[in-house]
Protein backbone atom coordinates (compact mmCIF):
# COMPACT_ATOMS: atom_id res chain seq x y z
CA UNK A 1 0.00 0.00 0.00
CA UNK A 2 2.91 2.35 0.68
CA UNK A 3 4.51 1.64 -2.69
CA UNK A 4 1.31 2.52 -4.56
CA UNK A 5 0.72 5.71 -2.55
CA UNK A 6 -2.18 4.55 -0.38
CA UNK A 7 -0.14 5.05 2.82
CA UNK A 8 2.55 7.58 3.73
CA UNK A 9 4.17 5.81 6.70
CA UNK A 10 4.49 2.20 7.86
CA UNK A 11 6.18 1.05 11.07
CA UNK A 12 6.62 -2.67 11.68
CA UNK A 13 8.36 -4.65 14.41
CA UNK A 14 9.19 -8.27 15.25
CA UNK A 15 10.47 -8.92 11.72
CA UNK A 16 13.36 -10.79 10.16
CA UNK A 17 15.20 -10.33 6.88
CA UNK A 18 12.87 -12.78 5.12
CA UNK A 19 9.94 -10.51 5.99
CA UNK A 20 11.55 -7.32 4.68
CA UNK A 21 14.09 -8.22 1.99
CA UNK A 22 11.82 -7.89 -1.05
CA UNK A 23 9.72 -5.10 0.45
CA UNK A 24 12.83 -2.95 0.89
CA UNK A 25 13.48 -3.07 -2.85
CA UNK A 26 9.84 -2.43 -3.76
CA UNK A 27 9.55 0.63 -1.51
CA UNK A 28 12.84 2.11 -2.75
CA UNK A 29 11.94 1.54 -6.41
CA UNK A 30 8.64 3.34 -5.79
CA UNK A 31 10.54 6.38 -4.46
CA UNK A 32 10.14 5.66 -0.77
CA UNK A 33 12.64 5.30 2.05
CA UNK A 34 13.11 2.13 4.10
CA UNK A 35 15.31 2.02 7.24
CA UNK A 36 15.41 0.71 10.77
CA UNK A 37 13.79 2.89 13.44
CA UNK A 38 17.04 4.83 13.97
CA UNK A 39 17.41 5.65 10.28
CA UNK A 40 20.14 3.11 9.53
CA UNK A 41 20.13 0.82 6.52
CA UNK A 42 18.28 -2.46 6.89
CA UNK A 43 20.58 -5.39 7.67
CA UNK A 44 20.38 -9.07 8.48
CA UNK A 45 19.70 -8.36 12.16
CA UNK A 46 17.05 -5.65 11.64
CA UNK A 47 13.82 -6.45 13.49
CA UNK A 48 11.93 -3.12 13.35
CA UNK A 49 11.55 -0.90 10.31
CA UNK A 50 10.24 2.45 9.14
CA UNK A 51 9.03 2.83 5.57
CA UNK A 52 7.81 6.18 4.25
CA UNK A 53 6.99 7.97 1.03
CA UNK A 54 10.46 9.52 1.34
CA UNK A 55 9.24 13.03 2.03
CA UNK A 56 8.19 12.30 5.61
CA UNK A 57 11.07 10.05 6.66
CA UNK A 58 13.18 12.62 8.53
CA UNK A 59 10.14 14.03 10.35
CA UNK A 60 8.98 10.58 11.45
CA UNK A 61 12.47 9.63 12.65
CA UNK A 62 12.58 12.86 14.65
CA UNK A 63 9.18 12.13 16.21
CA UNK A 64 10.25 8.58 17.11
CA UNK A 65 13.40 9.90 18.80
CA UNK A 66 11.37 12.02 21.25
Task: Indicate the topology.
Layout: E1 9-12, H1 17-29, E2 33-36, E3 49-52, H2 57-65
Antiparallel strand pairs: 1-3, 2-3
Essential attributes:
single chain; 66 residues; D-Maltodextrin-Binding Protein, domain 2; 3-stranded antiparallel sheet; 2 helices; 33% helix
Kindly describe this structure.
The protein is 33% helix and 18% strand. Strands 1-3-2 form a 3-stranded antiparallel sheet. The longest helix is centred in the middle third of the chain and has 13 residues, at 17-29. The model has no long low-confidence stretch (mean pLDDT 95). It contains 2 helices and 3 strands, in the order βαββα. It has helices spanning 17-29, 57-65; strands at 9-12, 33-36, 49-52. With 66 residues, the protein is an alpha+beta fold. The chain has a single domain (9-65), classed as D-Maltodextrin-Binding Protein, domain 2 (3-Layer(aba) Sandwich).
